[in-house]
Protein: Amine oxidase domain-containing protein
Organism: Prymnesium parvum
Amino acid sequence: MLHLLLAGHMARSTLPPQAHAAPERATADISSRETCDVAVAGAGPGGIYFAWRLLSAQPSLSLCMYERSERFGGRIYTLRGLGPRGDLTADMGAYRFANRPTDIAGFDYVYTPLVAALVEEALKLPFSKYDPGDPSSYMQKIVDSDGQNAGFRTFVESMMAQLRSFGSRFTLNFHEELVSVQPAAFPGAPVVLGFASGRTVAASHALLNLPVLPLLKVLDGSEALLRDGVPPALQTPSPMDGVKLYVHYSNAWWRNILNLTSGVFGFSMLNTSVTNTGQLPEFSGRYHDGHTRCDGSKGAECRGFLEATYTYNLPARWFLNHQLNTDPPYTVLNYSVPTGKFSLDLIHEALLNYHKTALSKVEGFNATAFVQAMRPEFALLSYWGPQTPGYGGAVHLTKSGSFVNETDLASLAMKPFPNQSIYVANEAYGALRGLDGALGENHGWAECSLVMAENILTGHFGLSPPRWINASTYDEYVRFHDSTEARMRRGGWRQG
């Protein structure tokens, strides 16, 4: 039943001890090195967007991309072919975008105009409302031609398909973990990237599409790059644990019996006062998120996933006992396996407790006993934390302090070594705009990484803003401004 789910996601070991020799190998004669105009370490959405934009605009360039795992997409992690009929999808990481400013719990508002324009205008992918039951929300999800969940990875796959059409100008290398970066010895000399495999690559420019902990690990093996110390901006973000839990029922009872297709239950996903230290889990769930399909003639026979929880930090950590994998960062909890049965029994009991009052009000039969007798066939649990190889966390926040102002973090981090052609793009350093138009503390969205990549492209590679996004929206919400006048002018929703 789950053969498609498990295919291609074998766990890999962490960095082997001998990999520490890679920085020394990176000092070998340059004739033995691979060469590339531009090298990208990390095949997350920011790295792929950077490559897609650059090669589309600069036909004379070549670009080499290196990824430590066996897949691209980073924390956009879509699983497909799920369920007994193989027709369900689940996003174990990032999953939505906002094409207009939208209020959501825990944020002043969220607006992701670059991702929205990329999905809607540049790639022309079908999309629909993430929560159809909330008329005030402009959150969107990517769907297929039938309106079913296609998975957020679709937009990254679309860019990758175009990159592969560039032939020899673009190469993607899996199972290549970056361990060192050697700076250019003099202006015009190449930057040299060393990998755990022993591979070394000399490039005129290097983009590091890496979050905080993996990047700091690379810098630890890059002594020559750090003659002036570690740039404070690269240590300013703080990683957060994050968990998602999708529970599969052949009878989607929350829909079939309670008609719950929209809204939330449990505590707020960003409520850090929740301890979640009991023997039963506490949930922060959503009825509209999990992919369900309704097969009856009247749409009443529904099956599929309930998003039982999606939360961060301490409330997430209850699930560490049940997260058996760190690479890949998700576990299949299967009822036919003793550990899976134990986990699913606890999860089912907790879900029943959350819905007992509603079930007791159903007329005509004992709905509580009916649901209590059910059991989920399986669940998908993703846990992104410091122990997750290559990621080191789910999302990031900005540490407070006097070294780096959070409004300047992204622009300082995107070219952290002023005299080197080394760039950084990742959600850990990028941020969404606040109500005042300034970059704030809300990292964790694909938009944050793509906006950093976009500003690197226009600021350091000479690209013009893309034509597929409104010019004033781009100026207000995408472009990084340096002048005080521009910073004061920016903001709010007036240009959105």
User: Anything to note?
Assistant: The mean pLDDT is 89. DSSP finds 14 helices and 21 strands in the chain.
